[in-house]
Amino acid sequence: MSFKVTSAPISAQMMEVEQKYSAHNYTPTPIVFENGLGCEITDVDGNKFLDFSAAYSACNTGHNHPAIIKAVKEQYDKIALPSRGFTHSRYAEFCKTLCESFGFEKVLTVNGGAEAVEFAIKLSRSWGYVKKGIAPNKAKVMMAAKNYHGRTLGVTSGSSNETARKNYGPFIPNVGPSYGDGKTLQFNDAEALEECFKLEGENIAAFIIETVQGEAGIYPPSPGYLEKVRELCDKYNVLWCADEVQMGSYRCGPKRWAYENLSTVKPDVLITAKSISGGIYPVSVVLSSAEIMNTIEPNTHGSTFSGSPIACAATIAALKVYVDDKIPENVAEVGPYMLEGLKAIGEKYDLITAVRGCGLIAAFDLNTEWLKKSGMNAWHVVMFLRAKGIACKMVHGTTVRYCPPLIVTKEQIQVGLDALEDCCSLLPNMKAENIPGVKEFHYLAH
């Protein structure tokens, strides 16, 4: 049997140390990155992989894009951090570039995606009190069930994932998918959204949703759903906040934002992060109209590294790379090739029960009952793909995501498809312990 990655002794040693000293807030696929360029990564043992995770879309432009690295290095030679108690020479250009490129009037910068959603909650509440006239401390921010907006306490308050919530209560009230008398608002359910607004609309400041639910397993909205969201938010005077932290920057198609690829309407508030700085430096932003953004008071939100010169340099350079490298055009060509290839494999083999996706991101559900009978689970599928040189992740123990950098070629996509087809055809005749790495990294299995 032909495996590309059969041994990783240094990786095993490092991960043992990591397990001993690091908080166990992640369960990584056992690949210890050492170098990366474009879609290719090398681990500490010299094994080479194609990255089909792209740091959850942060590395849309590929790892260590030379143009972005150059811009950041040049900025480091000048100044890295003056603090937000002052301003700096890159910030005006940064704000102007983002607002004009993204089609909004005002921008607020923070660092991570969860921070941006946290601010969107605050912004929505502020607008609700100042503009909508919601009674003090009554504002509600709706979210959809099975969302993933991050892991901060405010965002986790809106989660329906009990594993994410366990031992972290009490939670912030009036944030999340609950409405009415014990009902739960589901993503992609326009009728339930209208019922929710009818029941509680006078106190609802905003509806925050991922345009495509990512961590849930890549669930795009049905045609017409986002238009209905826009219609209902207008009717009940509710802000529609689109979380495009993972799905923005051409991930979902040749247009910049997922909502542009999947609808004809525009949100009131845009939340994005990760890929706007090319995976080089943490940058997240919230954009909206002047009317909405001006409801916040000076000195009531911010963070030390937000909008730093390095953040601005990385973002401005990355936005140029999207154009110069013709990334939208590549997504338009390669995205359908990957999705069609996955669907063809799914139709051919029993291991895959469903395939979903849009643009250049896709997920395939696994036949977990079949795996269980063979003494395996989704982790073993990921480990098989790892042994074939494909770095990818699973979600919820049932689904595997393919999310390569947007510069990926058809030839590289085909390598990923061939690896999956080998997995589907060969795994039924294998024992779990014969998959390279399974014995060494058994403690990571779910």
Automatic annotation (TrEMBL):
GO biological process, one term: L-proline biosynthetic process
InterPro entries xref list: Aminotrans_3, Class-III_PLP-dep_AT, Orn_aminotrans, PyrdxlP-dep_Trfase, PyrdxlP-dep_Trfase_major, PyrdxlP-dep_Trfase_small
Enzyme Commission identifier(s): 2.6.1.13
Pathway linked to the protein: Amino-acid biosynthesis; L-proline biosynthesis; L-glutamate 5-semialdehyde from L-ornithine: step 1/1
Listed cofactors: pyridoxal 5'-phosphate
Keywords: Aminotransferase, Pyridoxal phosphate, Transferase
Molecular function as annotated in GO: identical protein binding; ornithine aminotransferase activity; pyridoxal phosphate binding
Catalytic activity: a 2-oxocarboxylate + L-ornithine = L-glutamate 5-semialdehyde + an L-alpha-amino acid
Top enzyme class: transferase
Family membership noted in the UniProt record: Belongs to the class-III pyridoxal-phosphate-dependent aminotransferase family.
Protein name: Ornithine aminotransferase
Provenance organism: [Candida] arabinofermentans NRRL YB-2248
